[in-house]
Amino acid sequence: MSENNQGRDVFDAIADPTRRRLIRLLAEAEEIPLHELTVQFPMGRTAVSKHLTILKEAGLVLDRKVGRETRFRLNAAPLQEIHDWTAYYTKFWRANMLRLQHLLEEEEE
Amino acid sequence: MSENNQGRDVFDAIADPTRRRLIRLLAEAEEIPLHELTVQFPMGRTAVSKHLTILKEAGLVLDRKVGRETRFRLNAAPLQEIHDWTAYYTKFWRANMLRLQHLLEEEEE
DNA sequence: ATTATAAGACACCTTTTGGTGTCCTGTCAA
DNA sequence: TTGACAGGACACCAAAAGGTGTCTTATAAT
């Protein structure tokens, strides 16, 4: 029981640049109403609202109604999955950096 | 000059589960030809090839022709961008964990 | 009481995505 | 030297994505 509403894939949710910017905006404030978010983007309210719905389905934002506005707040926890996924591959670019370093050292001789 | 061919967004490239599995498979071997990758998925060669093209455009895989086969290898470096992006948000789930921890401690009393 | 604002709910549209099948060309094996 | 195999290059298709505009209903402000 419980868990996020629609169970949207977090990787999918962060694939769109608009949604990543929404995440960033929400990270910089406690709570932001839809109309205030909308003015930050070159698109209509409906579009922004749809993006927020997708973020909500991925569990990345929460919303509550206050008066006539709907305020959104970030829930960054699901991003941990992304962080963990990439962590597995850090060894590869570390390996590459080492290889590059060796090459540079060889060239210096 | 140089840089990746088409400049596809890395976030976009890893959004698809098939492509994430391709990345994983390539991480576990040095080099894998297309037909060998294809048998791992419930879809045709053409589809897998398209996914690999997208990964290539994002700079995540390299390929070379050997005889009649095309062999693919992983280049994990671009994943660093994802890793860095998520790193910014670690403070949020750390904060949440702390809050949860406090709640649990309160309940124990 | 009336008007303006915030936003949900739709219907609608275009482009992109993720798949298919077919044909053609190299390359390796018999 | 004749098959069989690997895979590029298309053309094609259905569904999803990312927008739009309009209508309606709460709520707030005058």
Overall geometry of chain A: elongated
Find the structural class of chain A using helix and strand composition.
Answer: alpha+beta
Assembly classification: homodimer
* Largest sheet composition of chain A: 3 strands, antiparallel
The fraction of residues in strands of chain A falls at 5-15%
Largest interface: A-B, 25 and 25 residues
Q: List unreliable stretches of 5+ residues of chain A.
A: none
Give the overall average pLDDT of chain A. 91
Instruction: Please report the distance between the alpha carbons of the first and last residues of chain A.
Output: 64 Å
How do the strands line up in the largest sheet of chain A?
Answer: 1-3-2
> How many strand elements of chain A?
3
Organism (chains A, B): Paenibacillus phyllosphaerae
Pfam family, one (chains A, B): HTH_20
InterPro entries (chains A, B): ArsR-like_HTH (IPR011991), HTH_ArsR_DNA-bd_dom (IPR001845), WH-like_DNA-bd_sf (IPR036388), WH_DNA-bd_sf (IPR036390)
Keywords (chains A, B): DNA-binding
Structural overview:
2 copies of one chain form a homodimer. By secondary structure, chain A is an alpha+beta fold. The first copy, chain A, folds into 2 domains: 1-77, Arc Repressor Mutant, subunit A (Orthogonal Bundle), CATH 1.10.10; 79-109. The first copy, chain A, is built from 6 helices and 3 strands. Chain A has a 3-stranded antiparallel β-sheet. The radius of gyration of chain A is 19 Å and the shape is elongated. Chain A starts with 9 loop residues before the first helix and ends with a helix. Chains A and B meet through helix 2, helix 5 and helix 6 of A and helix 2, helix 5 and helix 6 of B. Chain A binds a DNA duplex (30 and 30 nucleotides) through residues 16, 18, 33-35, 43-47, 49-51, 65, 67-70.
